[in-house]
Amino acid sequence: KQYENFIVGYDEVGNEALLTCERTAENYFKLTYFKKEVLDKYYSDSTYKVEAMRISNNFFSLKCDNNNSDYVVVFLNDLSRLPYEELIHWKGYNIAPDARMALSYSYYNTMVLGNWSHGAETLDLFFKERFAEYVKKWNCKFKWDLFKPLNDIQKHVFKGLHIPTTENISTFINQIEGLALILIDSLNDRELSKNITIEKEDKSIAKFQKYLAQHNCPSTEIIEFFRNLQSLRSGITKAHRFSKNNKDAIKAMKHFEIEADLSNCIKSSERLFMDSIYTLNTLMIHFNL
Questions:
Q1: Element (H, E) at 142
Q2: Can you name the residues that pair with 89 across neighbouring β-strands?
Q3: pLDDT in tens, 190-214
Q4: Torsion on CA atoms 150, 154, 155, 159, rounded to nearest 10
Q5: pTM
Q6: The Cα angle at residue 210 between residues 207 and 211, in degrees rounded to 5
């Protein structure tokens, strides 16, 4: 078994202090920090699963704190569980800690104090937890799926959804396409069409709006979000050429506060996840889920 040295802080003269990740009593509670970009490898490979407190595949499982916006925290001893080639990957993103860095509330409460708490704190991970919870509760109550089950390829899209770790336009575009697929394309038209009046030109969003109106559910912000998300996908994604004459796309970019040159992908990505979470929360509250 090969191990690597990682930065755990500073020595008495201010130089970076290194310790081996081999499991020893000395480094049992030592923390080590990494750039958030260390996760990109795992988000882009469908064989991995990234959760709030763990990264795993069929060959290893690493406990880590993914709940911070721009860094990942791992107990040094836990790195010893990784294959050596994975240690090399993590070492490339290892950074020295600063005063603001710490374990998230959920991770500290669960891993240190032993009190299980809801895992996800970042918007992307929280959305995925909430979506899975929502789908399960809706089906349990109504015996049908509002969002049709995802096939294997679509599940990979869902697993890969995340806030860009850098101002990466490609990752942001993937998020737009993924959310539109999961929230709009997956609407269950057959069930939504029951007991409502359908016009010839009605698409999924219009049917969803009529369904919500029939059940007295506040829908203005939900439908506005869906329509802007749809316009965003048709205006700036890889499958469509962006045009300044596309008024709907321009309106959607203003709604989500997206810069014309897509230079604020992280902030815009957070807004998309916030609106997605708001939609699920509104539905869960109104339909007593």
A1: helix 123-142
A2: none
A3: 999 998 888 888 899 999 999 999 9
A4: -140
A5: 0.89
A6: 85
